[in-house]
Amino acid sequence: MDANRLLARPWLPGVELFHADFSGQPFGRHSHDAFAIGAILHGAGGYQCRGAHHVLPAGTLSLMNPEEPHTGNAESERLVYRMLYIEESRLLPLLGRKQLPRGFQALNPHDDGQVAEALRRVATEFECNDALALESELLALLELVFVRHGGMRPNVSAGRDNGVTARLRDYLEAHYREAVSLEDLAALLQRHPRHLIEAFRNAYGVPPHTYLLQRRIREAKRLLVAGDKPLDVALALGFYDQAHFSGTFRRFTGVTPGHFLRATRT
Questions:
Q1: DSSP assignments along 223-245, one per residue
Q2: How far apart are CA 120 and CA 92, in angstroms?
Q3: What does the pLDDT look like over 35-84, one tens digit per residue?
Q4: Where are the domains of the chain?
Q5: Exposed/middle/buried for 57, CB within 10 Å: 0-12, 13-18, 19+?
Q6: How far apart are CA 40 and CA 71, in angstroms?
Q7: Helix (H, G, I), strand (E, B), or coil: what is residue 1?
Q8: What confidence tens digit (pLDDT) does each residue in 221-246 have?
Q9: N or C: which end of the chain has fewer CB atoms below 10 A?
Q10: 45: closest CA among 113, 102, 95, 108?
Q11: What do you get for the CA distance between the two ends of the chain, in Å?
Q12: Quick one: pLDDT at residue 158?
């Protein structure tokens, strides 16, 4: 049974995430108007590209440049992979670079697990619909892939922040109940998103989206003890749904909201 899903968000144009889980479904010769960054998670995929047939087992990346013709098929009974598509026009503003990376030379390099994990984090935030977290994880993935495989030089240190990180922390403390995007923060503080994340991590040990989640969980504990229902707490603090809230709560505390409540009443 095929279980393919395509995720996109209206506030993040030019970026799509495709989760493929199928058997036998061939893709005819085609191309994309975007860079494609994928990881084979189960089975083996294959395609015809650059005059050769390529087989991609699990643990392999699938990297494709815009307008590069190729086919696609499952080489195994079942094929599972994640693929991020990002249009060229979105790369420069996201990466804060003056020119585009040269593109991918190798189509299917072996992955040590870091790119697949970065893709998993992006997929998780796509599902949760958290703008700040998704933009942050997306930027981290793009930096990782294009430095490793796209000929891009590593970032230069953000340098002195001139009080920007303190202002960012104050903003997050004042607006932790609201939907916050990395793009909005960058515009507010007149810094590139990449510099904001790096400087904030250097100052406080975690990136802005993690700090924001920690602040929400701290408030969630207070509200739960005060008698608010978990669903009401989730919605009041900007979580996508109760499952998102429960998962995040457990991630930071080690227990579910229900377990936490029982512990406070014994």
A1: HHHTT--HHHHHHHTT-SSHHHH
A2: 23
A3: 999 999 999 999 999 999 999 999 999 999 999 999 999 999 999 999 99
A4: 5-149, 164-209, 213-264
A5: middle
A6: 16
A7: coil
A8: 999 999 999 999 999 999 988 999 99
A9: C
A10: 108
A11: 48
A12: 55
Q: Does the 213-264 domain belong in CATH 1.10.10.60?
A: yes
Q: Do domains 5-149 and 213-264 have the same CATH topology?
A: no
Q: What are phi and psi of 88, to 5 degrees?
A: -55, -40
Residues in CB range of 15: below 8 A, 6 or more apart: 8, 9, 84, 85, 86, 87, 90, 138
Mean pLDDT of 12-35: 90
Supply 99's token pair: 């020119």
**CA quadruple 217, 218, 221, 224: dihedral sign:** negative
Sign of CA dihedral 210, 216, 220, 221: positive
Which tokens sit at 150?
């796209």
Using DSSP's 3-state secondary structure scheme, residue 3 falls into coil
Query: Would you state the CATH architecture of domain 5-149?
Result: Sandwich (2.60)
Contact 155, 202 (CB under 8 A): no
Strand-by-strand arrangement of the 52-57 sheet: 27-30, 70-74, 44-49, 52-57
